[in-house]
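look at this one:
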Amino acid sequence: MTNPQLAHATEFGRMYSRSLSAPPEVPSITTVIAQEAQDMTGWAGHMAATELINDTRLNGAVGSPGELRNLARQASSAAERFRDAAAARGDRVHHYAEQVALAALGQQNQYDAARATLAEYGESRFADRFDQWWELYGVRPLAAEVTVWNQTVGYAGTLDLVAEIGGRICILDFKTKGVGRDGRAKPVRDSVVMQLVAGMRAEEQLVDAASGTWQPWPHRGDDGVEPLLLAVAISEAEVVPVQADPSCLRAHWRKFWALRQVWEHSRTVAEQGRVLRPIGPPPRPAPAGMTE
């Protein structure tokens, strides 16, 4: 995950502020989407079991409850460690993609350092495939890592890239992916459509973080020509761009709006503090015939 200047980690998820000196006000696009619960227990269990059976110390631990518990304890965090490693790799690939765009825009960039970092981690093939895709599709960047804001609904986010491809304005979101058993890039999740349409429906884009200067967002499609919304899966084997079906955008926008309400109500409930109080038994009625 990238770290835009105005993004903050809070107890209610990632939130954005209007300037460097202002407090966070609205949730990020990804925080809103995360309100939809996803059951990952099956995957986590699979990761733990796989690590345990592949641990070379397992045979020696058989018959020793203490050693087995140690191995099981370590294996239980396999999913978390895999997630963290994948997130770090995604950050490196995203950073490289940003530097490619900045270089094409003629802006200050860290292209050589970003490539060197990928090489250091043995991830140069991600850059190679990305470069091939960039050239093949004739990507002409307009803005990279642009922070946007929607005041009406109440959210903000940072878009990976706005570019012109084939004469059309496109909003792109990059997803770093592993390679499946078929040798192809693993597919992106459908939830990326909410992410893309929320970006398109922004109202403002950031000009200067320090002063909190914003300007109108020009890519809402209010002129009747909506931008193409593209999710781009970047893997070591290939880069696969997919387009969000325009006929589905309204439904995904409504779902995103509903999840934004869930976030708001969840925060309101959390701010109530302790809402369950112990209660004692009711007073016993006085026995019949007794008076004070």
Q: What stands out?
A: The chain has a mean pLDDT of 88. Strands lie at 7-10, 13-16, 26-27, 140-150, 155-165, 168-176, 204-208, 213-216, 228-234, 239-243. The chain has one domain: 7-270. The CA atoms of residues 90 and 128 lie 15 Å apart.
